[in-house]
Design a protein that fits this description.
Oligomer: single chain
CATH class: Alpha Beta
CATH architecture: 2-Layer Sandwich
Shape: globular
Number of domains: 1
Radius of gyration: 15 Å
Largest sheet: 2 strands, antiparallel
Number of helices: 3
Strand content: 15-25%
Length: 150
């Protein structure tokens, strides 16, 4: 067990979000050195009725044991990390992720995900995102459920 260990995850405040997608642009700059957003961003802001929802990795680590070559590991800081040099691009983690947080872009072979770098938090002009620390053992319970789900 990881008693006492914490991990940073993103917390989303939908009531503050206006859908500007500055967070997605900042994320795509980290992963792809471009501000395209869209499929090059590990964070996804989705308009749902009159509000917004966020899809992003919650660092649960369910994908780690699934990887056939051990490319996914949990770092000392709690973040689930993908080693690009080890990854064979099989996409098993992309199809397996229960919250669809492991992303695939045509521009690269290996998938990518949120690494809790904070670029999106700093880019949001409305303070709709925050990095918070949670216990690694409790992180699976911190999945950001879509509004109206149990």
């Amino acid at each position: 067990m990881n008693a006492g260990k914490t991990v940073k995850i993103l917390k989303f405040y939908p009531e503050k979000c206006n859908g500007c997608l500055e967070c997605e642009k900042a994320c795509s700059k980290v992963h792809f050195k471009t501000e395209e957003g869209g499929d090059k961003s590990a964070i996804k802001i989705i308009k749902s009725n009159e509000t917004y929802e966020m899809d992003v990795c919650n660092q649960c680590g369910l994908c780690i044991d699934l990887c056939p070559v051990g490319a996914l590991t949990r770092r000392k800081n709690g973040i689930v990390w993908l080693d690009k040099d080890t990854c064979i691009g099989c996409q098993s983690c992309v199809g397996f992720c229960p919250i669809e947080a492991m992303k695939k872009a045509d521009a690269r072979i290996e998938p990518f995900k949120c690494i809790a770098c904070g670029a999106c938090v700093r880019a949001c002009p409305y303070d709709a995102l925050e990095l918070i620390e949670v216990n690694v053992d409790d992180v699976k319970e911190t999945v950001y459920y879509k509004q109206g789900a149990d």
